[in-house]
Amino acid sequence: MRRMKPLVNFVATLILMLAIACHGSEHGVNFNIFPLRMKTGSGGHYIPDVSCLSWRVGVEAHNIIDWKTVPQECEGYIGNYMLGDQYRADSKMVCAQAYLYAKTLNLTRDGRDIWVFDIDETALSNLPYYAHHGFGVEPFDRESFNEWVPLGIAPALPESLKLYNKLLSLGIKIVFLTGRPDHQREITAKNLKNVGYHTWKKLITKDPSYVGKTAVTYESAERKKLEEKGYRIIGNIGDQWSDILGTNTGNRTFKLPDPVYYIS
Amino acid sequence: MRRMKPLVNFVATLILMLAIACHGSEHGVNFNIFPLRMKTGSGGHYIPDVSCLSWRVGVEAHNIIDWKTVPQECEGYIGNYMLGDQYRADSKMVCAQAYLYAKTLNLTRDGRDIWVFDIDETALSNLPYYAHHGFGVEPFDRESFNEWVPLGIAPALPESLKLYNKLLSLGIKIVFLTGRPDHQREITAKNLKNVGYHTWKKLITKDPSYVGKTAVTYESAERKKLEEKGYRIIGNIGDQWSDILGTNTGNRTFKLPDPVYYIS
Q1: Which of A36, A124, A39, A45 is nearest to A81 (CA)?
Q2: Which pTM value belongs to this model?
Q3: Which residues from chain B sit within 8 angstroms of residue A262, using beta carbons?
Q4: Structural domains in chain B?
Q5: What is the rounded distance in angstroms from the CA atom of residue A59 to the CA atom of residue A144?
Q6: I need a surface site. Which of A256, B74, B89, B207 has the fewest CB within 10 A?
Q7: Is the CB of residue A198 less than 8 Å away from at least one CB of chain B?
């Protein structure tokens, strides 16, 4: 029985990855969203009578911040969203805007124009992990997540991969900037290459000296270093507000959807 | 026939205002959102196969910026949104977050803690105007809008009014900061008072010296003056990203929904 669990998990992961891959190439199915009625909660954190759609949009618009978990009542809604067409459509929209912006730029093509890409839920998807952990209703389990990452099987987010390749063709260089720690660098690089992110100017992982500091602090510091080295951050894309806030954020920022977790 | 038009408009406006007022007090009806399929557009501005929901969320999340009109295909969707329960639920969520934040603060109650409120689509609703102008699909008609404003009959957004009163009860002072020009000050003050905004520390309208400058520039400058006078901007709420970006934005900002127009 114990030996079966990893196998079952792996098969489930493969199925999910297929689902993501198929949805990625599928355009066209209308997605009806039925907002769930949120029950009255205690402690003031849950808001009576507000749909999960309101919650999701609140997260995307930086109105709901510093949250630890998806509201219990929204597990089904968020699961449906993450596995369905709306997530694909929303991601496609963001990436299309990013590309429309990038192609209007007058680029010098001197190799110094860079686009900063976050990794988790931006370049790669951890949905296979989160599908087994209540789509964000469970408090973050670092130990468990750090068993998933080294498998190196996170799929590419299809719209992000498409954007990545389009930016490269415009002569823009890619810098991956991630909160993943230094010791996960090698497996992350392997995972990225395996799913199609074949080249980058830099892959910046988090040095232990940043432990205890916020993501905004870390990412701002690293972007500042890049600019001091002479790079021009013409675009910056991430799934967390902490990827695109702070200093040296870049000429324009784009936020991919992420109603599953929040990093401050 | 010509004399009938203002009367018909007025009656339609009254009906719309009733609709807003009734929705404001109504909690509970599930609102099904059916994203429209956007047709392939020319010129690169419209994005094939992306639902109007993706568009709306893109606007709220600052991914879609500098837009002049709502995409033609989304007129019905935006109209439904603005007249329906989702807009009310989304607004309620934002205002609930704002109040949850405000009541955690340790306030000195020295009269210097202020909350900056935008006016259009934040304190007051111009929905009766926009319902007659395609819910934002028509290019902005300043002349026509400036016939509507002096009527002084814009209704209060119910969730904003509720938040306003709750903030006052916490000892927070209100500063209205609006892009409406100085010559509309008197009618704006009258409109605000008529619908329940009974008091304020300041009502700041736009001085002619700001003509040609962006909204971000104007509002940042005015907020800076407030802070130089010793006020502490503990919160800032508006429907436009330009209300909450720039400098001296306040300790925390909140964005109310507005998929109808964009001010940069």
Answers
A1: A36
A2: 0.85
A3: none
A4: 11-255 (3.40.50.1000)
A5: 25
A6: B207
A7: no
